[in-house]
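pipeline: protein-struct stage 2 | run 1193 | Deferrochelatase
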Amino acid sequence: MTEQHLSRRRLLGTAGAAGAAGLAAGAGGGFMGAAVAQDDVTALATVGSTAVAFHGRHQAGITTPMQARGHLVAFDLAPGTGRTGAAALLRRWSRTAERLAAGRSADGTTDAARDAGPASLTVTFGFGRTFFDRTGLADRRPTALDPLPDFSSDALDAGRSNGDLWLQIGADDPLVAFDALRALQKQTGDSARVRWQMNGFNRTPGATARPMTTRNLMGQVDGTNNPKPGEKDFDRRIFVPPGGDPAWMAHGSYAVVRRIRMLLDDWDELPAPEQEKVIGRRKQDGAPLSGGHETTPVDLDRRDAAGRLLVPANAHARVSAPETNGGAAMLRRPFSFHDGLREDGAPDAGLLFVCWQSDPLTGFVPVQRKLDRGDALSRFIRHEASALFAVPGGAAPGEYVGQRLLES
C-alpha cells in the first residue's frame, strides 16, 4: 500500500478523532417519530473527524446518532457458497468495515473519500431468514425471524424485499458512505449478488444553529419520542439478552426495513391545520396537540371546550403510542429517500423505515397492526418493500460479525 493511499483520511490525524458523538435519544411509535433525535450534534468543522468504534457489545449503527447519508443493501448468496463461503465473506467485510470506521484505508476503496475522515462511518450486518437455509444452519434460525404477517396496506415488491444478507452503511459524508459501499460490494466477489439497494439521507449534523430533531419529507418534526438509551427498559426492548434463544444472538437486535413512499403531492394539498390533525402534533415545533412543547408527553385524554379530543382518535401520534399498543415500542432510525419522479410526475420519495427491537413480534408487529386498522396517515403513504433481519451482537477485537453463529 502506498504512503499516498494510506493518507487518504489524513483529516483524522490533523483534527483528532472526536469519538462517537454520543448515544441517540428519541422516538415512540409508528411511522412518524421515526428518527433518532441527537443530544449532541457535531459542529461542521469536526464532521469528518468523528469516528464510531466498529467493535463493541452491540453493532454500530443501531444507537449511533443518525447520519447524513445511508445505503441499505441486501444480498443473496450465490449457489454453492454455503457456510464456509459465507464465513469468508463476513470475515472480509468485517475487516474492511473496521479499517474504514477508524479512518484507515482498505482494499477495494475508490479514492472517492481521499483526505476525508471517517465521518461517523458505521457498517451494520444482518441475516435474513433464507440465509440459514443456504448455509445449512436452519436449525439455528431464530423463531423471531418468522415471516412478518401480511398487512392490508402493503403493496410489496418482492424484488425489493427480504434477502440473505443485509448491510446498513451510514456516514456523515456522502463520499465516505459511497466509498465504503463500493469497497464492500467489490469484496463480495462471486459469493453473493445484490438483491436490492436503497439510498437515503438525513440532515447533516451541525446544519442547524442548535441541536434539533430532524424533519421528514412531509416537513414534520420526526423523532421526538424514540426510546432513549439509559432508560431502564431500553435494553430489554431493543437488544436480545444474554442467555436468550438462540445464544448467538446475545446483545443483537432485529431490524425491520420498510420502503414507505409518501404521497407528497396529496399531502401538500392538505392545509397545515389538517396535517397537524393527521399527525397529532403541531407542524411548527412538533409539540403535541394536547399542549406543551415538543417533548411534553402526549395527553391522549385531553379535550377542548366542546368535549372533542385534542389529539384525534385516528391521529398517528395516538394510534402508534405505546400506551395504546400494550407498551410495544421500537427504536426507529430511518433515512429519507428521493429516487426521482414517477411516470405520473409525482416524486418517488419517502422514508426508508428501519426499526430495532429485541423481538419484532412484540415491537413492530403489534404497532403496525394497529396502524393498519385506523391510522389517518395511511392515506398518504404506501408500504412498497419489506424485510426482516437478525442482527447479531457486535464483534470483539479479532472476531468478525456472525462468527459465533458460523463457527460454533
